Amino acid sequence: AMKPKVMVLDEPTSGLDPNGASAIMQLLYDLNSEGMTIIVSTHDVDLVPMYSDNINVLRKGKILKRGTCREVFSDEEVIEQADLRLPWVGQIFEKFDKDDNISFVEGGYPLTVKDAYESLKPKL
pLDDT tens-digit profile of 2-60? Predict the structure, then answer.
């Protein structure tokens, strides 16, 4: 059977319902855990932090920023230049921070439900 070392996918979750998208991303995550390099092009910023180690933000064929999800999503200028947004989880924390001056964490907003839970639990 074929066992490629690298798999490149363009918008693999496009048009899928949330469960289908999660199933595809989990499969890719599992293949990566088995040693396969996975490269995914996507606009789905909500899935990216749950499954990505490193990301590159592209605009007109140029890399605007590369790094961890935290590094990239903490760079407001890059997010604006690339016409992206924070994942929904991060937007909630951003709203508390900017509208109410309530900060739950240092060094960027939580980007996943797990990160949000871990940030909030000690404060409850």
Answer: 889 999 999 999 999 999 998 999 999 999 999 999 999 998 999 899 888 899 999 99
Task: Write out the DSSP string of 52-95.
Answer: -SSEEEEETTEEEEEE-HHHHHT-HHHHHHTT----HHHHHHHH
Q: What is the C-alpha separation between 49 and 44, in angstroms, rounded?
A: 10
When divided into structural domains, the chain yields a total of 1
Tokens for 110, please give them: 């939580």
Q: Indicate whether 16 belongs to any domain.
A: no
89-113 average pLDDT score: 85
Residue 121 lies in a domain: yes
Residues of the domain holding 95: 69-124
